[in-house]
Amino acid sequence: MTANGGGPRTVSTSESSRSGSEFESDRSVSDEAPLGGPDASETILESRDLDVFYGDEQALQSISMEIPEQQVTALIGPSGCGKSTFLRSINRMNDLIDVARVEGDLRFHGKNVYDEDVDPVALRRKIGMVFQKPNPFPKSIFENVAYGLRVQGKDDGDVEGKVRTALERAALLDEVEDQLDSSGLDLSGGQQQRLCIARAIAPDPEVILMDEPASALDPVATSKIEDLVEELAEEYTVVIVTHNMQQAARISDKTAVFLTGGRLVEFDNTNKIFENPENERVEDYITGKFG
Amino acid sequence: MSTDTEPLDLSRDGNDVGTLGDTVARYVFFACAFVTVATTLAIIVVLVDGAVDFFSQVSFVEYFTGTNWSPRAADNPSFGVLPLIWGTLLITVGSALIAIPVGTLTAIYLSEYASPRVRKVVKPTLEILAGIPTIVYGFFALSFITPVLQTFFPGTGTFNAASGAIVVGIMILPMVSSLAEDAMSSVPDSLRNAAYGLGATKFEVSTNVVLPASLSGILAAYILAISRAIGETMAVTLAAGALPQITTNPLEEIQTMTAYMVEIGTGDASVGSIGYQSLFAIGLTLFVMTFLMNVFSMWVRSRYREEYQ
Ligand SMILES: Nc1ncnc2c1ncn2[C@@H]1O[C@H](COP(=O)(O)OP(=O)(O)OP(=O)(O)O)[C@@H](O)[C@H]1O
Ligand SMILES: [Mg+2]
């Protein structure tokens, strides 16, 4: 699908950040291993006893898990169990919600992103996000993809080349090549979502968070997004929330099952979760007995 | 429900209370709409009728190009409207220079930076400010703004354009900030989140996502505020004075079109005199100016309509 998909990726941790304090990374990996399984590749994200509250309501209860680098980790569970909340706590989008409060650690390359010296703006430059509903800017297709490059000060070199590469990786270039100047809002829903993915990968983050990226799309568009997610994992770490069991089984390497009350009840290799879950309630959930 | 002997009745008569209510309501609504439209038409007819009388005695050329407005000079009255238009222009541009930047920044602050608590207090306060009678603003200009100007610029007259422009600027400020804030807060959060998710700062989100996405509403706010400044009467009459002249010094006395109308309308011009008829010409000119501004505002709104869903 993508022409230049596979090559090794240079991770630019010292990339210039206009907002001042650079996100620090000291790639130390914790020695204790919470839920996660023995054969995990290098851990890039690790949550330790993470609690999230909205006002007095606790949405996440002591979540501990390790998310492996360059793999797809799926978060599944019934509605309201805190999947989106967990995803937003990774790149500190919860900061934007007035009543939200986070306790515990969320480590990125071993560094707690809730430490005083971490700038959420710098963090979000390394951890991109794709939302449930496609949300392109009311700007041209080109400017949509270029936006992240511009705010991150990466628009000095070959912007056009970077934009085209991102569109190509998002499997959208062929469809929009002749209309880069037309509005991103003129695209179909599925194209808009791929545009949003292109926008997220253009500045070359390390992690991409996706919150039900295909739930507003038809089956054809959905399967395109699924193919894309699998390909993205060759270069990026993908954490994806989905309501669709088959989707989680198809595209993810690891699956985390949250259940009502904001608890992580099981986190393991996807095969294991779907074929032989430890937890009875997980089995019930996966086989559709509730949820 | 309905049996064989009593078939379902869907005819009009079977339900005549509702039908009657509908009919009455329709006439009441129509009457209200009719009164509104008829009043507007009547105003236009009266203005045009008076203006026709005026222009049968004064040529268009003299009116629109003359630089001397002295309608009551006994021997040689002169009807060049430019000094009055100039006065109105000074006030309008001056007040816009104050209200647009301050109002826009206030709107950005309220929509993007202020906590919900602050917004809940400030926004209604602004709207109350918009409800203060304009004569009060005029009095405020005379008793406060002008003395302050006089301390800084000793030559400032008791009546001066600057004082009028400043007070009108303060007057239309709530309108700019309130309408612009409405436009900005109607930008969906999904767009803000998209930008934040890409590592944009709050300032970047405000300036290159929210502002462009709400541009049409913001421009419409500017235009409405400007047309309010053009039509503003009491405050400028009190603050800026009644001396029609084309001056580039804002500390001098001027007269706006509206202030002239107050002067004549409350003064001694006898019905049928040329001075009286000039009211209609000026009134029509003002009407056309504000009407064009409103049309322009509507055009801007549709031309730059927010495209996001
Ligand atoms: N902005 C918010 N303010 C207050 N409470 C919130 C907010 N967002 C989420 N919550 C609450 O937190 C809990 C978890 O919500 P969250 O959106 O994370 O669930 P979810 O697993 O993503 O659900 P879904 O599958 O429906 O998207 C819910 O009880 C929800 O009501
Ligand atoms: Mg959710």
UniProtKB/TrEMBL annotation, chain A:
Keyword annotations from UniProtKB, A to Z:
ATP-binding, Cell membrane, Membrane, Nucleotide-binding, Transport
Q: What cellular component terms from Gene Ontology apply here?
A: membrane
Is Nucleotide-binding tagged as a keyword? yes
Report the SMART domains cross-referenced here. AAA (SM00382)
Q: Which SUPFAM superfamilies does this one have?
A: P-loop containing nucleoside triphosphate hydrolases (SSF52540)
For this chain's UniProt record, which GO biological process terms are given?
A: phosphate ion transmembrane transport
- Give any GO molecular function from the UniProt entry: ATP hydrolysis activity
Superkingdom as given in the UniProt entry: Archaea
* Chain positions covered by the region annotation Disordered: 1-42
Low complexity compositional bias: what residue ranges? 9-22
Identify the residues that the record assigns to the ABC transporter domain, covering every copy: 45-286
**Keyword field contains Aminoacyl-tRNA synthetase:** no
Name of protein: Phosphate ABC transporter ATP-binding protein
From TrEMBL, chain B:
Question: For the ABC transmembrane type-1 domain, which residue ranges apply?
Answer: 85-297
Task: Report keywords, A-Z.
Answer: Cell membrane, Membrane, Phosphate transport, Transmembrane, Transmembrane helix, Transport
Q: What is its main location?
A: membrane
Q: Name one GO molecular function term.
A: phosphate transmembrane transporter activity
Q: Give GO terms for biological process.
A: phosphate ion transport
The places in or outside the cell where this protein is found are:
Cell membrane; Membrane
Instruction: Give a GO cellular-component term.
Output: plasma membrane
Record PROSITE patterns: ABC_TM1 (PS50928)
Where are the membrane-spanning stretches? 27-48, 84-108, 128-149, 161-180, 209-230, 279-300
How does the entry describe its membrane topology?
Answer: Multi-pass membrane protein
Q: Which PANTHER family match?
A: PHOSPHATE TRANSPORT SYSTEM PERMEASE, PHOSPHATE TRANSPORT SYSTEM PERMEASE PROTEIN
Q: Which family does it belong to?
A: Belongs to the binding-protein-dependent transport system permease family. CysTW subfamily.
Described function = Part of the binding-protein-dependent transport system for phosphate; probably responsible for the translocation of the substrate across the membrane.
- This one is known as Phosphate transport system permease protein
